């Protein structure tokens, strides 16, 4: 489908192209086996190591992470079992989730010039920090908070695949750092990445928490459900941007003051006194200090 570069599209035109976008990849049977194993009561390192060996990409990511500056080990780790020992179950679970998602989505973004590696660092960083935020505000019993943070910007990937000319033009304007990305997307394409991502996830019949997060992560105060996760993603997204980790595609500067004045922070800590909020901010600052090394190891 040929799209005129400067033509702002109608919702019908956008939805017509969206219908052609490939489905979200399901996790392979290997990764499903991994998820089942790490969530079971019998978490044997040797068994986990055997599953990881079947996935060369996951193995590579695992060893790269554990040997990164983040872990500061004096002797390089070459054994999968040893790597599993250092990383722990939660980190392994996150790796098992992120590896197939990144690899399959990378196939959709090859036609557009964009700092995709830095984009994935932004997404993973947002996922990790979202989990940290919910841990100090509203604990989540599963990994839905991490996954919501990971896929919050899926609309940008869909835009790059379905509307590459528009995406490129948007990026050229956004990189000037003078206008907010949402505003630019509306003026060039006729829809922003948040709504586009939500429409795509609805089409794929994903859980409502991910749809709500994609649609409202810039405006969590109007989310219809799962407000605490949507709010946590907003704050994580802003904090990662303020620390200039990776690249979200939105080059408008963000200060730490703006992060903690955002509607999401107020929603997460509505009645918390200043001392408790200061403790929460300090905990997040510590995580942010270690994040760059971790992301270099992951992506």
Structure description:
The protein is mainly alpha-helical. The chain has two domains: 26-99, no CATH class; 108-299, Orthogonal Bundle (Hypothetical protein af1432), CATH 1.10.3210. Helices cover 65% and strands 0% of the residues. It has 17 helices and no strands. The chain has helices at residues 11-18, 29-38, 45-53, 56-66, 80-87, 89-106, 116-136, 144-150, 154-162, 164-174, 181-188, 193-203, 208-216, 227-242, 256-261, 263-268, 274-298. Helix 4 packs across helix 5 and helix 8 packs across helix 13. The longest helix is centred in the C-terminal third of the chain and has 25 residues, at 274-298.
Summarize, please.
This protein is mostly helical and 299 residues long.
Shape: globular
> Whole-number radius of gyration?
19 Å
Q: Helices and strands, in N-to-C order?
A: HHHHHHHHHHHHHHHHH
Summing up helix and strand content along with how strands pair, one would put the structural category as mainly alpha
Strand composition percent: under 5%
**First and last CA, distance:** 32 Å
Determine the fraction of residues in helical runs and give it as a percent range. 55-70%
Give me the count of strands: 0
Count of separate structural domains: 2
The name CATH uses for the topology of the largest domain is: Hypothetical protein af1432
| CATH homologous superfamily grouping of the largest domain | Hypothetical protein af1432
Average predicted local confidence, pLDDT? 85
- The parts where pLDDT drops under 50 for at least 5 residues are 26-30
CATH architecture group name of the largest domain: Orthogonal Bundle
Total of helices? 17
Give a short account of the largest sheet: none
Q: CATH class of the largest domain, anyone? A: Mainly Alpha
